[in-house]
Amino acid sequence: MTNYLQSVWRLRHFWLALVQIDLRNRYRRSMIGMGWSLLHPIAMTIVLCTVFSQLLKVGDIRVFGPFLLAGLTTWNFISAVMNQGCQSIFQNESYIRQQPAPLAIYPLRTTLGAGIHLILGIVIVIVLSWVMHGLGNVAALPALLPAIALLFIFGWSMAILMGIVNVLFQDTQHLTEVALQVLFYLTPIIYPPDLLPQRVRWLIGCNPLASFMELIRQPILEGQLPSWQALAIASATALATSAAAALMLARMERRMVFYL
């Protein structure tokens, strides 16, 4: 694994150039450039705050707004790496046929693009929390670094798994879209877990994505370090998905070109 990661790092100029191409093509001739990537979660936050602040009776909108924006920002990263990860191998078929580069660099291309938008979104959430509640969370913000690192490991691993599985079974893309729609409502993105009845709250505990939400929200919204339980669940989830991705690469990487 160490040798494999070193080979990925040696080709950093290649996959960084691919990320630059993706961003340039996506925002070519755009007036506000990458600002469009922030418009969607901000617009969704405004709409959902207007509707659900009364429907869910969440109380102060100054608390619910940053809570919702943090959840949408984290969710957009997770959904992007899973949806776009399904096509990460197919879209790079020409490169795969031309050179024997590590297969993981193509899902990495997808993950880095989504990761840039994640970091921009987190910056907006931090600024919004400062406007609403002051600078009381500054001391806890360094806890975001391991949270982002775990999210990146999880996202890269999921992109690898989705990309390989989608080559073998091309209905994976459509199944993933359906699964993400279900997961959106099973993950505390638009509602605090405390609002759920006690008899169904266990569903949140069984959802590992909820721990990633807490890792991002707690330092920003509460100015506190995330709980050890959330950190342990997120770490175990990232470790399990990375191990599955490594096993999948070891088994399928050399044969993948024959399926394309």
Task: Give an overview in words.
It is built from twelve helices and no strands. 74% of the residues lie in helices and 0% in strands. It has helices at 2-10, 12-26, 35-55, 61-85, 93-98, 105-133, 144-168, 172-186, 202-205, 209-222, 228-252, 256-259. The chain is globular. With 260 residues, the chain is mainly α. The two termini are 25 Å apart. The chain has one domain (34-259). Helix 7 (144-168) runs parallel beside helix 11 (228-252).
Rg from Cα: 19 Å
Strand content: under 5%
Number of strands: 0
Low-confidence spans? none
Oligomer: single chain
Counting helices, strands and paired strands, the structural category is mainly alpha
Sketch the major β-sheet.
none
Roughly what is the average pLDDT, rounded to an integer? 87
Brief overview:
By secondary structure, the chain is mostly helical. It has helices spanning 2-10, 12-26, 35-55, 61-85, 93-98, 105-133, 144-168, 172-186, 202-205, 209-222, 228-252, 256-259.
Secondary structure elements and pairings:
Elements: H1 2-10, H2 12-26, H3 35-55, H4 61-85, H5 93-98, H6 105-133, H7 144-168, H8 172-186, H9 202-205, H10 209-222, H11 228-252, H12 256-259
Helix pairs in contact: 2-6, 3-4, 4-6, 4-7, 4-8, 4-10, 6-7, 7-10, 7-11, 10-11
Characteristic key phrases:
single chain; 260 residues; mainly alpha; 12 helices; 74% helix
